[in-house]
């Protein structure tokens, strides 16, 4: 057990936190689990957005790969409303290297998904739960911050002028992109709900041990 709970102040503080977490709202919903479901769902959707972007980039590069090419083939274009560069083909070795980086990105996204959900679900104080969800959103912007700080301005301008890769998902049988993301989302949200209810049970047990319901009613 937690030795700090031997002090009456910590017992009262813990009881207040757990009581607020398990407080009933309108419709029989409890404040803590309801908030946890919202922030966990938002976190799952945030990760799915990143994974969807990775899938789009991977497929676009694979569709642009050319086995016999050894350099990236670019085309300069200019229209009445825009101008820039277009990638016509990508050498196979660069394509393989890009796919390896995409696998690393997916691994990082999966790790962040699991760690973020565990962190959010284990938080019992509602205000801290909301603050933790905001902190997680800053973590997802960390890569863009590093990019903006360290990339040379000339390279940043070149990338800005580069036209996005076209991506063509095969929709003849199933919307593959949506199916994959939907499946991952269902698994993530279902696991979150299970862990949230387990945490609620723990919170309720500790709350009742600190102050049984008959004493609170009295």
Automatic annotation (TrEMBL):
The protein's name: Uncharacterized protein
Organism for this UniProt entry: Noctiluca scintillans (Sea sparkle)
Domain of life: Eukaryota
Record keyword Transmembrane helix present: yes
Keyword list, A-Z: Membrane, Transmembrane, Transmembrane helix
Residue intervals passing through the bilayer: 25-48, 96-121, 178-197
């Amino acid at each position: 057990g937690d030795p700090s709970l031997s002090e009456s102040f910590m017992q009262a503080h813990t009881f207040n936190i757990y009581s607020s977490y398990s407080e009933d709202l309108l419709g029989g919903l409890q404040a803590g689990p309801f908030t946890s479901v919202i922030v966990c769902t938002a976190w799952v959707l945030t990760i799915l957005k990143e994974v969807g972007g990775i899938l789009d980039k991977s497929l676009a590069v694979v569709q642009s790969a050319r086995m016999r090419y050894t350099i990236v083939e670019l085309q300069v274009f200019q229209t009445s409303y825009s101008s820039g560069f277009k990638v016509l083909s990508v050498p196979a070795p660069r394509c393989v290297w890009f796919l390896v980086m995409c696998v690393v990105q997916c691994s990082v996204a999966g790790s962040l998904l699991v760690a973020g959900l565990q962190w959010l679900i284990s938080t019992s104080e509602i205000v801290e739960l909301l603050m933790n969800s905001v902190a997680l959103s800053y973590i997802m912007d960390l890569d863009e911050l590093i990019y903006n700080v360290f990339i040379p301005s000339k390279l940043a301008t070149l990338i800005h002028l580069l036209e996005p890769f076209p991506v063509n998902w095969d929709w003849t049988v199933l919307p593959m992109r949506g199916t994959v993301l939907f499946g991952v989302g269902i698994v993530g949200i279902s696991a979150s709900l299970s862990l949230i209810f387990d945490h609620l049970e723990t919170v309720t047990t500790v709350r009742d041990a600190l102050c049984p319901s008959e004493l609170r009613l009295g």
